[in-house]
Amino acid sequence: MQKTTIFLVLFIAFSFYSFWVYTDGTNTASTTMSEKAIHGKVLYQKYNCTACHQIYGLGGYLGAELTDILSKPGRNPEFLKAMIQSGARQMPQYGLTDDECDDLIAFIQYVNDCSPNYKKSR
Fold it and tell me: Domain-by-domain residue ranges, the chain?
């Protein structure tokens, strides 16, 4: 009887929590990605940026964590665009056009906007 009661309490708690997460619990930012951000995500995948960079702690360790990079002091879209276009120590220069750089930055900005509490959770 006690095991059944514990199971039912846990099951009901899990059900309510799941309902909250999948309905209202993730509304920290607009969940609609712009066309530029979608194209930026495709570029991020095409050039395998995950091999070196992390988003939400997933990815390589050679490059910078990109989840909240635009929230850091002195890191703005212009800084990021310069880094992408010119490359850096270990980062290759991919020869992206201005529009492609803007799209990639739009994707990184989207990730940044969707993760206001990321830094606090690390």
Answer: 1-31, 32-121
* Three-state secondary structure of the chain: CHHHHHHHHHHHHHHHHHHHHHHHHCCCCCCCCCHHHHHHHHHHHHCCHHHCCEECCEECCCCCECCCHHHCCCCCHHHHHHHHHHCCCCCCCCCCCHHHHHHHHHHHHHHHHCCCCHHHHC
What is residue 75's predicted lDDT score, i.e. its pLDDT?
85
CATH 3.30.450.20 matches 32-121: no
Express each pLDDT in 77-91 by its tens digit: 888 888 888 877 788
pTM: predicted TM-score of the whole model, two decimal places: 0.70
